[in-house]
Design goal:
alpha+beta; 2 domains; 5-stranded mixed sheet; about 20% helix
């Protein structure tokens, strides 16, 4: 009789567990609800709890390789980028703390199995950020990534990332970072792949972090017609608003990076030119009050 009761209990527990197991579509709907909280809820505690829920989901569910090909079709509040071979996907999201603080969250899901979470440390640094060190996921210079480029140097693959960081009330950031994987297939941020031009200083960074005044827009995009990453050239400026401190603004000229033989060659000055349609669309997008990622100007 005792053995019978134990068997019945085990069966009931198993049936209960099965009944509680959610489909990917159900999880996608739940994530979408959490995303609405993260982007729209006026209560900071509710936003933080929703971010924690999302990261708990990533850590628990995305560790399973069987979930890698499941798409986030309903939840659109974070960015998902793939390399050409779909060997991984990098997921990043933005967490608005208050008017002067942002945090970033996310990680990398490997197609072969495993999820590697990021810990945002960008807010711990000075205004310039860390540009000359290789960093591990727990030292991540957080950003919402919006472009990924497959690259290769000496037959070793790496990936160039363009991203946005809300940083503070007065100043925002655009980021060019480099992702690679070490011999243990663990991610590393930052890499010696940039080549300076004749007007650059002595140091060549492992990543670029551009800090600029929040009242202006900074372009950082890939221009396919010219095969260039094009960005606004920034010049220093004394504070525009009281308490801002020294900042930077575009001066109306452009600089760029051209990919050649595995490295990105910096061009400190590009000839003045008329904006094409994609750039005009980017400006129109920036001037909208918000987008699917919430409080950003990531274009």
């Amino acid at each position: 009789m005792k053995k019978y009761l134990i068997l019945v209990s085990v069966l009931l527990i198993g049936q209960s567990t099965q009944a509680q197991k959610k489909s990917w579509h159900q999880w996608d709907e739940i994530l979408s609800q959490k995303g609405n909280v993260i982007l729209e809820d006026t209560n900071a505690v509710n936003r933080a709890e929703a971010v924690n829920f999302v990261m708990d989901f990533f850590n628990a569910e995305l560790a399973d390789s069987a979930t890698f090909h499941n798409k986030f079709t309903i939840s659109k509040f974070f960015s998902v980028l793939y390399p050409k071979d779909s060997s991984f996907r990098i997921i990043t999201g933005q967490h608005f703390i208050d008017n002067n603080h942002y945090r970033y969250y996310g990680g990398i899901q490997m197609a072969a199995g495993g999820f590697i979470p990021f810990t945002d440390r960008s807010y711990e640094n000075n205004k310039d950020g860390i540009t000359n060190e290789e960093l591990r996921p727990e030292e991540w210079q957080g950003a919402l990534y919006y472009r990924l480029f497959d690259c290769k140097l000496k037959n070793q693959p790496y990936y160039l990332l363009l991203g946005y960081n809300g940083f503070s009330f007065f100043n925002k950031r655009k980021v060019i970072d480099v992702l690679s994987f070490d011999s243990n297939n663990q991610p590393v941020f930052g890499k010696d792949v940039f080549v300076k031009d004749s007007t650059d200083g002595e140091d060549t960074p492992l990543r670029y972090i551009y800090t600029y005044s929040a009242d202006v827009a900074m372009q950082l995009n890939y221009e396919e017609e010219e095969n260039l990453i094009i960005l606004d050239h920034l010049i220093p400026m004394t504070e525009i608003f009281k308490g801002q401190g020294e900042t930077a603004v575009p001066d109306g000229t452009y600089e760029g990076f051209r990919y050649k033989k595995g490295r990105w060659h910096h061009i400190s000055f590009l000839p003045q030119r008329f904006m094409n349609e994609s750039e005009l669309n980017s400006i129109r997008k920036k001037n909208k009050p918000s987008n699917k990622f919430g409080r950003t100007d990531e274009g």
